[in-house]
Amino acid sequence: MTFNPTFDEFGCGPDYIRTHIKELYIPTLRQVLLDAKKKGIIVKIELKGPNTALPTLQLVEELDMVDTCHYSSFRHDEIKIIRDLRPEKNSDGSFRYKTGALFDQVPDNFISLAHEVGASEIHLKYSTCTKQRIETIHKEGMDSMAWMRGPRGMQFDLLNTFDDVGNEDDSMYSILIATGVRNLCVNRPDRLVDYLKRHQDHFFE
């Protein structure tokens, strides 16, 4: 596997990577999960390619992290593998092994596509989240998440598509949260945490 320092979605840019290449490394999934386990963090693992479901599942089970790891993918066949292998449910009827069907564009039949692969969650690109779609997801018994593009993708969107919000600023967060979406996958968690703290009386009554 080769490392491409000019990949468009790296927010820091290629110059920084080239300058600090000896200090930078990409941790293994095992390293990330062990660190998350120590801190008690719930992890959403995106299955990026073919044949990733089974080894990822085996690693999570080996580390005894079944209840703190969720799986998601644009490759819905991969999360179907997880569901077929692990259909167990909790006492409340929810799936123990959480899987999320990722969508870039949202087809009319996105709910049925998610149900077909046993998804417990639907993850929509931030710009496709609407109150109606999120309400439909919840009525179907699934959880919801909005995901942001990488830093450079977000910059492109904001320069070329939107003129009423900034890059993960208060206006963007307020619009997304107003849809009722329950989880946000962001590039700027510090800004989101600050936003939620400033509005905690509204969100945490």
Characteristics:
alpha/beta, 205 residues, 6-stranded parallel sheet, globular
Topology overview:
Layout: H1 14-19, H2 29-39, E1 43-46, H3 53-62, E2 69-73, H4 76-85, E3 98-103, H5 110-116, E4 121-125, H6 131-139, E5 143-147, H7 151-160, H8 170-178, E6 183-185, H9 189-198, H10 200-203
- Describe the strand arrangement of the main beta sheet, using strand numbers: 1-2-3-4-5-6
Structural class: alpha/beta
- Distance between the first and last residues' Cα: 48 Å
Q: Percent of residues in helical segments?
A: 40-55%
Number of distinct helices: 10
What is the overall pLDDT average? 90
Largest sheet: 6 strands, parallel
Q: List the secondary-structure elements in sequence, H or E.
A: HHEHEHEHEHEHHEHH
In total, how many beta strands?
A: 6
Globular, elongated, flat, extended or rod-shaped: what is the shape?
globular
Estimated share of beta-strand residues: 5-15%
Query: Rg from C-alpha positions?
Result: 18 Å
Which stretches of 5+ consecutive residues score pLDDT under 50?
none
